Amino acid sequence: xxxxxxxxxxxxxxxxxxxxxxxxxxxxxxxxxxxxxxxxxxxxxxxxxxxxxxxxxxxxxxxxxxxxxxxxxxxxxxxxxxxxxxxxxxxxxxxxxxxxxxxxxxxxxxxxxxxxxxxxxxxxxxxxxxxxxxxxxxxxxxxxxxxxxxxxxxxxxxxxxxxxxxxxxxxxxxxxxxxxxxxxxxxxxxxxxxxxxxxxxxxxxxxxxxxxxxxxxxxxxxxxxxxxxxxxxxxxxxxxxxxxxxxxxxxxxxxxxxxxxxxxxxxxxxxxxxxxxxxxxxxxxxxxxxxxxxxxxxxxxxxxxxxxxxxxxxxxxxxxxxxxxxxxxxxxxxxxxxxxxxxxxxxxxxxxxxxxxxxxxxx
Length: 363
Hints:
There is one protein chain. Helices cover about 45% and strands about 5% of the residues. It is mostly helical. It folds into three domains: about 10-55; about 70-160, DNA polymerase, domain 1, CATH 1.10.150; about 175-335, Intergrase catalytic core (hpI Integrase, Chain A). The strands form two sheets. It has a three-stranded antiparallel beta sheet, covered by helices on one side. Helix 2 (about 70-85) crosses helix 5 (about 130-145) and helix 3 packs across helix 5 (about 130-145). The longest helix has 20 residues, at about 130-145. It is elongated, with a radius of gyration of 29 Å.
């Protein structure tokens, strides 16, 4: 077979259409060498560099590096990001999701197709913006590994990010709520009720432990939230009733050797106990039975905010209740409080008349 000529001589792509390019060359002794490089342009430069080194007698065969696990490059990135204070996602949940998806794989074996499948799984329960944060974190992890020459290329560069639609606003109507609770299994109803009455995110709810529920002060503490600092959520009567019923149930009180209840366990657990690993297994069938379309678990949080806005809660207070870092995130609910705003303007008429009774008589 004739040798490949032209500027791509000594280069080949493997696997085909993967975007991962290798170089192939022979040293002065006739020994063949192959190196996995990554991008085609970089592979071309490496090939020319190796040929120059061989020609000038400066070539030494590159040492074979031990293949690193994804867990290793993830740990390296996080240590660096913590020291520099520039984490893309604060808290553990993003790292845990990446570790669960790729932790056991060799870093250089992860393909764009695997990452696309991971993206699509996240998109079933999370907003497009949150999914993209995970992809940005994964991209940064691989970028650091490429700079350290731990991997040859960044597979995330060939993956399309989700199209973000921050204007989407879907909330649960009253009749839909009734249908949903009729369709939910009994053990899942308290979780949904608390979500509707607190606006807590799915991850916050699933990771909530009894030690973080304070019935005396009526607050829930969110550990390691998106903001990076512990946050506090107020409980209304409905939330307290649901949580107290769970706490009082025999399945939630475990007597320790010391004789006291165990407050380290999860508040919401799977039917047989323990962490709820696969909520969508129960969530989506319930939606189908209830006849509810285009609704995600995260929309329970939108329902909480929408109902608060329509009940007359001002946007400043709503921002605090939602724990939004920016008021722009809360502005999407502004139009829902229009009726309340009109009522506020109407009340100003009454205030003006009370302050200026003579003006009203003269008119």
